[in-house]
Amino acid sequence: MKKLFALGIMGLIAVAANAQQKPLMGFTPVSSAKQLQTEQQFDQAISAPRINETLKDLSAYPHHLGSPGGKVVAEKILKKFKDYGFDAHLQTYKVLFPTPKTRVLEMTGPTKYTAILKESAIADDPTSGQEGQLPTYNAWGADGDVTGQLVFVNYGLPDDYETLASMGIDVKGKIVIAKYGKSWRGIKPKVAYEHGAIGCIIYSDPKEDGYFAGEVYPKGAYKNETGVQRGSVMDMVIYPGDPLTPGVGATENAKRLDRKDAATILKIPVLPISYQDAKPLLEALQGPVAPESWRGALPFTYHVGPGAAIVHLKLEFNWDLVTAYDVIAKIKGSTYPDEWVMRGNHHDAWVNGADDPLSGQSAMLDEAKALGDLLKTGWKPKRSIVYCAWDGEEPGLLGSTEYAEDHDKELQQKAVVYINSDDISRGFYHSGGSHALESFMGEVSESVIDPETNVTVGQRKKADELVNAGSVKSKREIMNRKTDPIEALGSGSDFSPFLQHLGVPTLDIGYGGEGGGGEYHSIFDSFTDHERFKDPGSVYGAVLAKTVGHTVLRMANANVLPFDFRNLYATLNGYSRELAELASSMRETTAMQNELIKNNTYALAADPTKKQTAPQVKAEVPVIDFSALTASLEALKAGADKLAASTDAASNIDHKILNETIYKAEQQLLSPAGLPRRPWYKHTIYAPGFYTGYGVKTMPGIREAIEQRNWTEAQQQITAVAAAINALASYLDKAAM
Amino acid sequence: MKKLFALGIMGLIAVAANAQQKPLMGFTPVSSAKQLQTEQQFDQAISAPRINETLKDLSAYPHHLGSPGGKVVAEKILKKFKDYGFDAHLQTYKVLFPTPKTRVLEMTGPTKYTAILKESAIADDPTSGQEGQLPTYNAWGADGDVTGQLVFVNYGLPDDYETLASMGIDVKGKIVIAKYGKSWRGIKPKVAYEHGAIGCIIYSDPKEDGYFAGEVYPKGAYKNETGVQRGSVMDMVIYPGDPLTPGVGATENAKRLDRKDAATILKIPVLPISYQDAKPLLEALQGPVAPESWRGALPFTYHVGPGAAIVHLKLEFNWDLVTAYDVIAKIKGSTYPDEWVMRGNHHDAWVNGADDPLSGQSAMLDEAKALGDLLKTGWKPKRSIVYCAWDGEEPGLLGSTEYAEDHDKELQQKAVVYINSDDISRGFYHSGGSHALESFMGEVSESVIDPETNVTVGQRKKADELVNAGSVKSKREIMNRKTDPIEALGSGSDFSPFLQHLGVPTLDIGYGGEGGGGEYHSIFDSFTDHERFKDPGSVYGAVLAKTVGHTVLRMANANVLPFDFRNLYATLNGYSRELAELASSMRETTAMQNELIKNNTYALAADPTKKQTAPQVKAEVPVIDFSALTASLEALKAGADKLAASTDAASNIDHKILNETIYKAEQQLLSPAGLPRRPWYKHTIYAPGFYTGYGVKTMPGIREAIEQRNWTEAQQQITAVAAAINALASYLDKAAM
Questions:
Q1: A565-735 belongs to which homologous superfamily?
Q2: Distance of CA A304 to the CA centre of its chain
Q3: Nearest CA to A240 among A265, A261, A260?
Q4: Do A469 and A427 form a contact (C-beta atoms < 8 A)?
Q5: Interface test with B, best of A601, A609, A620 (most B CBs within 10 A)
Q6: CB of A604 within 8 A of CB of B463?
Q7: How crowded is residue B472: how many other Cβ atoms within 10 Å of its Cβ?
Q8: Is B60 within 8 Å of B362 (Cβ atoms)?
Q9: Is residue A603 within 8 Å of residue A614, measured between CB atoms?
Q10: CA–centroid distance for B283 within its chain
Q11: Number of continuous H segments (helices) and E segments (strands) in chain A
């Protein structure tokens, strides 16, 4: 205890000392000191017990999109913002949202089994047996009534189907069963459909988040045999939001697509099940034993199928238009009212959503309370602050996407930054987003103390990285680096439309790593579970509120916005090198594999009693010309250096013009055509992967073309990305005075 | 079929072409052609159906050391050798062999469970329910009656106890349960005892060779819930063989140690159990959840303990002296009767032992039959051929070790080579042993055709290596290498006393990789199992017989023995570089870890709700001086090159003197003092690892000192190994004319 206390003091001294050494990024020595004082006041107003109280209150009933509980939650949030002194209103959209009408899953042979498709309520968890819960289902799968042989497809990703093909197995006309994990769930049925499957079951293997991972709920945090992960399987990597209104806000009178023309609604029925329901199905499979890495923790030998196991899957949905209630709450900026520092977190859940999304939402509401307290002292932000509580994130970022599409021009004109959070738990700070904000986030992460260790959250994160880095070399690199990296953003939360469709500078901030469990999207994501396993007392809720609060306050008050495009350059340069190495390693691997195929090596190494097909010869990988990209990066470096030299916060230049230039710079990275086959995604640097879903692909046009061995497109996309980077480079060059 | 046939022809043409190109190593063009003809005759005499018949006959009843069935098997083997024209006799030793009198394992709390400790016979497998089977037990654990808390220790290796310590758990006064796998089983109770445990249970986790790996017996080849792996836990890395007669043959009147003074008998009771019996014990464990890599495939959360789970283990053994029946069978050499080409495989099993050892033993007997057929044609080997069927290998290489100790001087004088085999199955050729025989074995492996692919067994092995190599770089290295490597030998079969105690040049040859299963040392290692899963029809038994047959015949007939010390040099040079890299990487890792500890990094990264102790600061690793070793290797290179230039088989030099020099050269690598703390092991290059058991440690004196962070001893051992290599270098230099 003593040691920790000493460290705590040291941490605080370090923060204070750092503050004295040099002003905050974008501030003058005077405004910096004042800013730190404001942040101190802000921090004092943040209350973990109040966050916990909010979380308990808002998680008391199911509150999914379109539900009475969802409306109540939106109204409660609206009232809070108003009480705190925000100018708040509900902004509504009419969005499509399928809920289940019929759910049947049964095995008709070799034995009969009818799936239970229901989680069991638990006495210890008072909300787990409530009325009004959405049944276990995946939204956006097709209506369907299909019967077919069952095939186990591991995680259901493209590589898995290659493995199946090497075993001589295809899934045409069959129903696949994939396990949750590795990729976003929506990829699994999409890839199944691409391979000709007629239905897709997704189950939670106990190896992933069940008893293999730890004791199951309610004894421990992990998934018990009845737990099911609900979730969207919308083909969100084409576009997120309402499937019927791509690119425009789903207002009452918006022009809507016919449902059958909506590209993001899947073509086959999809159903998530528990491991209780998966067990008899998987155990009945015949055919080859599944490859070792495919096997889970159920107590039998995993086979791939197909065989005598025949499954009947029947699903029907209510395809209703429902109202999404976004809550938008503003504090008007004193100096630059038309520059908006935006902050958001969704409020809808799949069931009670104590952790997802309320751990983030309740923290955000406490930030609003603390800002309200500051307002009462007469304090005013220079820029406007806009808080957003989104509805309909769970089914596919509906509330945020419709809002962003509805206000696209205004946001591209006014939004300085969009700062997102979502579910969090005890543990380590992490952040992602626009890399021009990397140094800035480094500074923010040094301004908040971690309650478990009493060092800054940035220092603790670094300690975790150091311990987990694989080699002495990578540990040394982490120790020596000047800027702590932020992640690139893919999808999976409301930041996506702001960053990837509009080019608004974006941040996503969170905490986690010590709150593992299996409650995600189930009836067990409850206040009881949160209090026991995720973040008891919402201690880290308060840490999140402080971290995001500092971020908001600094962005709102900085003399010069704290962007540094030199960080962006360094990151992009890293991506460019990565891509060149990827292409060259694919060239070597392909040549070697073709040589081995030619030499009959695979056939010689194979066990003739097992059906195995040698890999097919692939076209040799041509040399790809990265010179346009390299040249554009040189130009970006020059532009970024030049701008950095002219962003002294204490100078007499017109900060308004400079700032407006700076925060709109990210839009230079948009390409008007968007990404190949998914034009909604306009950012040339960040996108969710076509086959990863949430997982990011950086420089996605180039990277995915290489991964898909489409060499012509790779070369075209190098031109496109280089053009965007060149545009940004000359934009920065002009901005620098 | 057509394609395979074409390949087959091509393979044969390749063999033939190769033969025409240049004479076999150690032969003249004329003697080489004659030799190939002899081998062809030999191959024609090998019969897979006869091998299978022998295997079925010898596996008909349990035949462990000291059993009536064991004696019958020895006598049957003796008769065969005599029938084939060998001069054969039984050589007997009186050896200690514990068999169980009392076996009790029960959990007394929190619930009561009495372990079954018996495998269930299976109707489909006629020998599985026979009388006379040894019960499930580990030989050489102590008598004992202990009760204590249970702790799960993963594989029970030193690293696992470090992990336990970091969780604040020690095993003093407790009973540990370790799972089979990773190391040789005898290491587990030894390390448990070193850490203060009072008893050790070893169980077969279904993840290792049970349902996780594949369908269980009798449906598939893997271990069913009652299967138990018997086996020796003798501390064989001190010395193998009869614990009462270290270093000398256990003849009737040999001087024997008191049992309590025998260093290789363990000090705590040890018992192997099935996963049926392990399940309730492991499920009752409390304490921290086991680290992810520790968890097996039983359907619950693995905990480490200790807690309410209390276990009572009571074991008593009959510590009897029994007779080991070695069968020794000779064909007298026509030219050099006092040069012995030795060939061995054990005949004792734990139960019926169809695979272990009879798959190897039956093949060996067919070699003898084929040699007998050659004798009948008037053919005679130049050198004497000595076939050995060992008893008592299973409890600790008793038959072979006692024979080798009993005949140590004679063997060092006469043994040109000892060629071993043991259990084999369908699949890939592999060989290990003295690296001066590496090129020779490369030639042998090109002289036998693989029946599944119709290329040479060497080519098929290389195909397997190529497919499984991790990187393009390592695939390229495999493609480009001139000599296919043979493995270094540790322990686990009868080659150990010849190579590591006497310095007799040694080879161990086998096939496997396509016969996976869980029958090892259980009642299910039966003819039925072998015929279904290991090597149906003993097809690979015949391949082994041909491979070893060619090896024996070439060694017996070569004009100049086919040793090439340049291969040895290259291998030793590789070891030396490996060791220097090991020391330097430990230096870097230690420095980095100490730095992280000093900076409190581990504490900062730890979850404070979990009991975890940061690693302790370790002494920095000094710079170790490898120059003596490097210099000795330079000398060896010169000596090997010089000798290679003077071993032309067609020359007029006195081959007898040259050959005698060559085959005794390996003895130069022995150190009179032996390895630190285990003087029985005299070879400075090859030994079983002190903490791996079967697994080899090359340059063990140096390597283990480094691994144990004993820097003084590492430096001393560099001197010792360099001295041995220098001795060999000048020996070769003198031998070269």
A1: Transferrin receptor-like, dimerisation domain (1.20.930.40)
A2: 31
A3: A265
A4: no
A5: A601
A6: yes
A7: 16
A8: no
A9: yes
A10: 34
A11: 23, 16
Which residues of B fall within a CB distance of 8 Å from A7?
A: 600
E strand segments, B491-593:
506-513
Nearest to B401 by CA among B218, B239, B545: B239
Closest CA to A360 of A513, A504, A520, A540: A540
Rounded distance, CA A245 to CA A260, Å? 13
C-alpha B204/C-alpha B213 separation (Å) is: 12
Q: CA-CA-CA-CA torsion for B160, B163, A182, A145, nearest 10 degrees?
A: 70
CA-nearest of A565, A648, A547 to A27 is A648
Q: State the pLDDT at residue A737.
A: 66
**What CA–CA distance (Å, rounded) separates A443 from A430?**
13
Measuring CA to CA, which residue among A667, A672, A668, A713 is closest to residue A690? A713
Local confidence band at A647 (pLDDT 50, 70, 90 cut-offs): confident
The Cα B367–Cα B43 span in angstroms is: 9
* B596:A466 CB<8 A: yes
Q: Is residue B460 within 8 Å of B546, Cβ to Cβ?
A: no
Burial class (CB in 10 A: 0-12, 13-18, 19+), A307: middle
A607·B427 Cβ contact <8 A:
yes
Residues 6+ apart with CB under 8 A from A666: A434, A436, A499, A503, A504, A505
Find chain A residues with C-beta within 8 A of B602's C-beta.
463, 467
Structure-token pair, residue B562: 């086919």
Minimum-distance CB partner of A211 among B7, B300, B472: B300
- Structure tokens given for A312: 């009947």
Q: Please list every residue in chain B whose beta carbon sits closer than 8 Å to the beta carbon of residue A602.
A: 463, 467
The minimal CB distance from A299 to the residues B211, B213, B467 is found for B211
Beta bridge partners of B342: B386, B418
**Is residue B543 within 8 Å of B451, Cβ to Cβ?**
yes
Q: How far is CA A295 from CA A207, A430, B290, in A?
A: 9, 31, 20
> Which candidate from B213, B604, B609 shows the least CB-CB separation from A460?
B604
Domain boundaries, chain A: 2-95+322-557, 98-318, 565-735
Nearest to B271 by CA among B189, B214, B339: B189
| CATH assignment, A98-318 | 3.50.30.30
Asked whether A326 and A65 are in contact (CB, 8 A), the reply is no
Q: Which CATH superfamily groups domain A2-95+322-557?
A: Zn peptidases (3.40.630.10)
Question: How far is B489 from B493, CA to CA, in rounded Å?
Answer: 10
Per-residue pLDDT of B677-706, as tens digits, reads 999 999 999 999 999 888 999 999 999 999
Q: For this complex, say whether ipTM is above 0.90.
A: yes
Q: Which residue has the tokens 């079929």?
A: B1
Name the residue facing A467 among B466, B467, B601 (closest C-beta): B601
CA distances A193 to A182, A187, A396, Å, are 19, 10, 20
For chain B, what's the residue count?
Answer: 737
One-letter amino acid at B210 equals G
Size (chain A), residues: 737
User: Other C-beta atoms within 10 Å of B167: how many?
Assistant: 17
Alpha helix positions (H), A130-175: 158-166
The yes-or-no answer to whether A2-95+322-557 and A565-735 have a common fold is no
Q: What is the pLDDT of residues A451-504, one digit of tens each?
A: 999 999 999 999 999 999 999 999 999 999 999 999 999 999 999 999 999 999
Give the CA count within 13 Å in the CB-facing half-sphere of A245.
27
Inter-residue contact B371 to B385 (CB < 8 Å): yes
Asked whether the beta carbons of residue B301 and residue A607 sit closer than 8 angstroms, the reply is no
Residues A214-244 pLDDT 10s: 999 999 999 999 999 999 999 999 999 999 9
In this structure, what are the phi and psi dihedrals at residue A32, rounded to the nearest 5 degrees?
-65, -45
User: In the numeric block, which tokens belong to residue A452?
Assistant: 């478990």
